[in-house]
Design goal:
The complex is a heterotrimer. By secondary structure, chain A is of the alpha+beta class. Chain A has two helices and five strands, in the order E-E-H-E-H-E-E. The longest helix of chain A has 18 residues. By secondary structure, chain C is α+β, with helices and mostly antiparallel strands. In chain C, 56% of the residues are buried. Classes of the chains: A alpha+beta, B alpha+beta, C alpha+beta.
């Protein structure tokens, strides 16, 4: 999931899963974004880091039409000032609506 | 004031794997900066002939990751120092096969990975890039 | 430490203009991580739709402004993800791209992706600080 190297922690592209069972939690782009970022917050805290140490986020969406839905949820998770980010649309596996990866200051 | 990090271009020992030079393209195979090596996306190329591989996806992924290992070793690093991998597949249904081969190269403590599908050029089945710790 | 690089000109503040929850760039660990740069007017934030070539010129101009404001430059680019809307424009991308990276180009991967607002190109870059 997350690998530390040098000054940074590199987090894999995360999808909406139950953090305890690993089961997929498919939903809307907004609900999947919420699940992913809640999981990310837990993951970073367990690694001694936090959402306010994220430097760069890449968001992959199954459709760019959903960008505002993702952004509305996203804005609630990342405190001021937010990390750098790139968002694009691509073909995602298994009907997944959103994948989020990030690079974090360790 | 913190000292500025220097950028150094890296090249593969095997010139047939230097797609940047071969194609006279505006990039380098990789850049070393500070603790890190950032590689350009790599595609399935036969290291003995320089020819593109048209084989099944498993073979393409295997070739690409072998070439990536060579690229990193040429720069004094290695696959076990890889921190992050981006795998782009032309066909999303190749995910399982890709993953099967991928695990052969990263069997223990694998790097962070994000995999997805996009349109790829020249009929390539995969394109793979990574960030690794320098040697 | 993580340092925010603010928009050097008001048009590059995408939060204000488009509600994008992102900072223009962040400096950390000797590197500068930039948000995906789009073809927008750096003074007004207006979208500059055009050909891939014209859009790329605007993007590189914006990146130059942003990186130089942070004490870096296009010559210090380390890695680029070049997002293009269709791989058929690959050669067109290269023609304009090479004008800006002549002094030792960075690593690059080209992604054919769906880009926001129907733009033809976007550049996602990391530079040495």
């Amino acid at each position: 999931m997350a690998v530390r190297g040098g000054a940074f922690i590199f987090v894999s592209g995360l999808t909406a899963i139950d953090p305890h069972t690993g089961e997929r939690r498919p939903g809307t782009t907004a609900s999947e974004t919420h699940q992913i970022l809640a999981n990310l917050r837990q993951l970073l805290e367990a690694a001694g880091s936090s959402l306010d140490r994220v430097v760069k986020v890449n968001v992959l969406l199954h459709s760019m039409l959903e960008a505002p839905n993702m952004n509305e949820v996203y804005a609630r998770f990342f405190p001021e000032p937010p990390p750098a980010r790139t968002v694009c649309g691509a073909r995602l596996p298994d009907g997944i609506k959103v994948i989020i990866e990030c690079t974090v200051l360790a | 004031m913190t000292e500025k990090l220097e950028r150094v271009a890296i090249t593969p020992r095997n010139p047939l794997l230097n797609a940047s030079r071969a194609g006279n393209l505006p990039h380098v195979p990789g850049i070393r900066v500070g603790d890190y090596i950032f590689l350009s996306g790599m595609v399935p190329v036969d290291p003995q002939t320089g020819e593109r591989s048209h084989g099944p996806i498993a073979e393409q992924v295997r070739l690409t990751l072998s070439n990536m290992a060579h690229m990193l070793e040429s720069a004094g690093s290695s696959l076990d120092r890889v921190l992050r991998v981006h795998v782009v597949l032309a066909d999303i249904s190749d995910m399982a096969e890709m993953d099967r081969v991928y695990r052969e190269f990263f069997p223990v403590d694998p790097p962070a990975r994000t995999a997805w599908s996009m349109q790829l050029r020249f009929g390539n089945g995969c394109e793979i890039e990574c960030v690794a710790l320098a040697g | 430490m993580r340092e925010i690089i603010p928009a050097p000109l008001p048009g590059l503040d995408l939060r204000q203009h488009y509600g994008h929850h992102q900072s223009p760039a962040i400096r950390a660990g000797g590197l500068i991580f930039c948000s995906g740069m789009l073809p927008i007017d750096p003074r007004t934030g207006e979208r500059c739709h055009g050909t891939l070539t014209s859009e790329a010129h605007v993007i590189f101009g914006n990146l130059k402004l942003l990186l130089e404001s942070a004490g870096s430059s296009l010559d210090r680019l380390v890695q680029v993800h070049a997002l293009i809307y269709d791989s058929i424009e690959y050669d067109v991308l290269n023609r304009v791209y090479r004008q800006y990276v002549a002094n030792g180009p960075p690593a690059r991967t080209v992604w054919t992706a769906q880009i926001e607002a129907g733009f033809k190109v976007e550049l996602d870059v990391i530079a040495a600080a």
